[in-house]
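Q&A FORM
Asked by: J.P.
Topic: structure of Chaperone protein FimC

PROVIDED:
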Amino acid sequence: MNRLLCCVCLFSCISVSQASVVVGGTRVIFDGTQKTTTVSVQNKDNVTNIVQSWLSIVDETSPAKDSFITTPPLFRLKAGEQGFVRILRTGKPLPEDRESMFWLNIKGIPAMDNAPDKNMVQFAINSRIKLIYRPAALKKAIPENFSEKLQWSSEGRELKVKNNSPLYMNFSGIFVNGKAVPEAWFVAPYSTIKIPVASASSSGKREVTWSVINDYGMSGPKYKVIIQ
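REPLIED BY: S.T.
REPLY: Here is the structure written out as tokens.
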């Protein structure tokens, strides 16, 4: 009991401050005809933040993350101000017959309050959005044009979805017999993934409804298929 009271007292005298560096958008489509693109960030906190940016791979289908660099990788952003992170090609080759996808990470680290009478826990909040490189040959291609062409099949308690297109298909929703598949899924170009559907019967018909996310971060048209 005494230990519990000590913990309560400790947390009651700590104020929690969360960074509020907001990224302008949910994804970045990097035009393959360009050498650079820009992402806006805004500090909605009431203190200065140190903003850190870097790229990481999405999965084993991602090319080397050093195909791009972010600049500046580290900078100060005062309260209420807007800043920009540039993403540049490094010259390392990327596939030109399909998209490549990476994570763009933006971390806001709030400045410490030096007031001696305050106990402050500071949190560095990492925002992560998708950076999708679209080659010049695919400049006019959009995910909505390929969503309906996804091929679905059933395998026990799993769904298989095959993407024969050169674009990443990022799902905004997948429903099986009216029940939402809980996780956010994507399928890489010219790839197949398996999606576990634990709540569905391993036999019988399945009605699958899906939609993909467009270049503006919005949900595209819904499509439906019935599979055995």
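FOLLOW-UP: Confidence is low (pLDDT under 50) at residues 1-19.
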